[in-house]
Specification:
Helix 3 runs parallel beside helix 10 and helix 11 packs parallel to helix 15. The chain has 399 residues and is α/β, with parallel strands linked by helices. The longest helix is centred in the last third of the chain and has 20 residues. It contains 15 helices and twelve strands. The protein has a seven-stranded mixed sheet, sandwiched between helices. Strands 8-9-12-11-10 form a five-stranded mixed sheet. It has two domains: 249 residues, 3-Layer(aba) Sandwich (Aspartate Aminotransferase, domain 2); 135 residues, Alpha-Beta Complex (Aspartate Aminotransferase, domain 1), CATH 3.90.1150.10. It starts with 11 loop residues before the first helix and ends with a helix. The model has no long low-confidence stretch (mean pLDDT 96).
Length: 399
């Protein structure tokens, strides 16, 4: 009983369940979990053919694994990419995407508004190899245009950004980048392929921390890089094969199961987040409420032209600064304090002192992170329970 061929025109929710599906000779319904590291050959000649590439088969799970391959094919189908390559974490995906293509003397242009570890890779690691990064204001097209007026190897950005939810004009930045000879790399972890497909808007490479919404229940680490076949053949594939930041089959299987419910979950995350954002915006303790789905968001129109909904992350700035932020966090009874996001459980953190604490105060403020800012990752709890918890925490913050 051979596996069925997935029709190319299926919609996202169907692809999330059936994309890349391959069954073994046992004809299982759920995808098989192959935990093996190696593979055997009937003959020495067969082994030779596997290594010289004349036979397409699995050789070693650092290179390819059946479970990992199904996950990669399914995520590629959701993102509309020719190729997906998975990694052990989201930061492994970031590092591999950059290091596989840059060389000494190259130049990268990046949005200033980035996750802390991404900023470190660009500002601290790449210069050790003779690669310089110029940072620009994510939302300022004049800055992007000026920075991309000279030859550039890569452009790096996230939209919406972590944690201040700034939104980059993907089409405009991609046009500037391609004129400068650069590939555009987009972190799509906040939006997921359910809400946003950057490759359709001019980007060349998309990456994910699958640890977040794709897993969806805070269980496993993982990353993924999506690109075209040429980039994979010339740069990414050889780099991953020889450096080995591979995703484990078990983690791939968990993320694969996460993809099956991603659409349903994101619909609920987004609906609850919008409801909560409106409650927060109306409360006097909140000096500022940032959520792309709110009409008050400075880039609401652009966000809704690139995304189908506002996502599951809210940023709120408490009027009383860090002291109020701490009172808010400590008063929460349902929402947990955690630096993670994308979980079924609602989570909140204080970026100034956690995820972005290594940045200088000036750099934090430039990214829209003030001492009163709290990031909330909205989970799958009953929306009214979350409204009650957030409201009483806001009341506590206002004291």
């Amino acid at each position: 009983m051979p596996s069925k061929t997935t029709p190319p025109s299926l919609r996202a929710d169907t692809l999330a369940v059936r994309g890349g599906l391959e069954r073994s000779g046992f004809f299982e319904t759920s995808e098989a979990l192959y935990l093996n590291s190696g593979y055997v050959y009937d003959t020495a000649e067969e082994a030779e053919a596997a290594f010289d590439g004349s036979a397409d088969r699995y050789v070693y799970s650092r290179f390819r694994n059946p479970t990992v391959s199904v996950f990669e094919k399914r995520l590629a189908a959701l993102e509309g990419a020719e190729v997906c390559k998975s990694t052990a974490s989201g930061m492994a995906a970031v590092t591999a995407t950059l290091l596989c293509q840059v060389r000494a003397g190259d130049r990268v242009v990046a949005a200033r508004e980035l996750f802390g570890s991404c900023s470190w890779v660009l500002s601290e690691l790449l210069p050790q190899y003779g690669v310089i990064t110029e940072f620009v204001d994510a939302e300022n097209l004049d800055d992007w245009k000026a920075a991309l007026s000279k030859p550039t190897t890569a452009v790096f950005l996230e939209t919406p950004s972590n944690p201040s939810l700034r939104v980059v004009d993907l089409r405009a930045v991609s046009e500037f980048a391609h004129a400068a000879g650069a590939r555009v790399i987009v972190d799509n972890a906040f939006a997921t392929p359910i809400l946003q497909r950057p490759l359709e808007q001019g980007a060349d490479i998309v990456f994910h921390s699958t640890t977040k919404w794709i897993d969806g229940q805070g269980r496993t680490m993982g990353g993924a890089i999506l690109c075209d076949s040429a980039f994979n053949d010339d740069f990414l594939g050889p780099f991953l094969r020889h450096t080995g930041p591979c995703l484990s089959p078990f983690n791939a299987w968990v993320a694969l199961k996460g993809l099956e419910t991603l659409g349903l979950r994101m619909e609920r995350h987004c609906a609850t987040a919008l409801k909560l954002a409106k409650v927060i915006e109306a409360h006097p303790a909140a000096a500022k409420t940032l959520y792309p789905g709110l009409e008050s968001h400075p880039r609401h129109a652009l966000a809704m032209s690139q995304m189908s909904a506002g996502g599951g992350i809210i940023a709120l700035s408490l009027a009383g600064g860090q002291a109020s932020a701490y009172r808010f966090l400590n008063a929460l009874s349902i929402v947990d304090i955690s630096n993670n996001l994308g979980d079924a459980k609602s989570l909140a953190c204080h970026p100034w002192t956690t995820t972005h604490q290594r940045l200088s105060p000036e750099d934090k403020m430039a990214q829209g992170i003030d001492a009163g800012l709290v990031r909330v990752s909205v989970g799958l709890e009953d929306p009214e329970d979350l409204v009650g918890d957030i409201t009483q925490a806001l009341d506590a913050a206002a004291i």
